[in-house]
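Hey all, quick one. A colleague (J.T.) asked me to put the arginine job into the tracker so the inputs and the structure tokens live in one place instead of scattered across chat threads. No bug as far as I know, just bookkeeping. Sequence used:
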Amino acid sequence: MNEPNPSAKPWAGRFNAPTDAFVEAFTASVDFDRRLYRYDIQGSIAHATMLSRQGILTATERDAIVSGLEAVRARIDAGEFVWSIPLEDVHMNVESALTADIGEAGKKLHTGRSRNDQVATDVRLWLRDEIDAIRAAILRLQQALLDLAEREVDTILPGFTHLQVAQPITFGHHLLAWFEMLERDRERLADCRRRMNVMPLGAAALAGTTYPIDRHYTAELLGFDRPAENSLDAVSDRDFAIEFAADAAILMMHLSRFSEELILWSSAQFGFVELADSFCTGSSIMPQKKNPDVPELVRGKSGRVFGHLMGLLTLMKGQPLAYNKDNQEDKEPLFDTVDNLKGSLKVYADMMGNLTCNRERMRAAAKQGFSTATDLADYLVRRGIPFRDAHEIVGKAVALGVREGRDLAELTLAELRQFSDAIGEEVFAVLTLEGSVAARDHLGGTAPAQVRAAIARGRERLGASEDDDTARESQFRQLVSETSETLEKWRQSQDISESSNPHPA
Ligand code: ARG
């Protein structure tokens, strides 16, 4: 077992006095960055594998390091690892435990590497996995929305502008608007992942290293698309964290907007939807209350996620090249962002799968507020009246309806004809809700036929990206997730390129 030994700081050589006890606790990050241990170990195994292939470590040393790291990982997995604050962070905790376990070879792991390129690598490896998980969670919510849209493809409710009744729409159409917003979120994250998937290792502290390393090989072992071009940039770049936080902020802004609608719609005044009891809570004083806590909380959580974006931008804005200790502050906002995103997406998909719609209430609301007034104007245009005149005629008819407390469809033909004798009996078909939505029958319109087609296209898009994700994930697994596979790959590549190896072990 590893036992913390404060005097064993890897950098203690040039110091004459021990670290102040408070400073030690103040500067340590192990309390939170230990969350990265699997990625730290994954990176170290790839690094050691590369060092040995380049003849910088012997095969025996490499094997001792790899199995030693696996044993450390197993201890951490099992909750048996003793974390040490004097050892500052996850990197030195793991390395020090390795050396305590295997002796001399452990001390060679850090050859040609610095914690600066190590931490930049760990965070990218971790975030890459989290982005995959978040994208899968978005997809799951999108699927729930498509299912609900399919069920409610003919359900009519008022569409709003300025939160005033505007025109009738189908509920399926409304849900597909949410679907599109999420589709952009999923794309944005894929884009962020692509740009992030570049390997810092080999930059060492800032300038590179004097050892004959093979960065392409390490990058390949870790599933990175390529090594970073510039060592200074590699250790100090946190653009990927900011970009992720921005994508996360936009996603949370979307969820917050969905929440606002669900909260309004589930109020007694709207009564359009009912959230399942299992997603609501009551009041300790008012017995009648059933509160939409989940959407409210998601709307609230958007605030902290926006804050993390601002925090990360501010963290970076004054930093000269290259690494500065400030960067240690990148982790907690990222962890919190990821946790809240995953939680919000999961609960949202579950909640949408359990939503009840009150179709009568939606329909009744669509009948108020003269929602088919534009349809009457369009009808007059079809009868040869210029749109501006038609607008005026309908405005007068609406004014009559307001005075009489009746909707346009409830006025008599004679009443309508006092404003224009172009109006005939067939106008009443135009003024129905069904007629209104069915008439908007083009790509992107609210007609049920269009919504059905859009749902089918949506399912195709999700199906295609699921295939992509599966392919990428299995590729990723093959390359990196299991150490034995990494080693196996190393052995194979040795057989192939033994003769071309410039630094044989
Ligand atoms: N804990 C540090 C971080 O999170 C690791 C890198 C430390 N590097 C250094 N030169 N002190 O950024």
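Adding what we noticed when we looked at it: The first helix runs from residue 21 to 27. Confidence is low (pLDDT under 50) at residues 475-484, 496-505.
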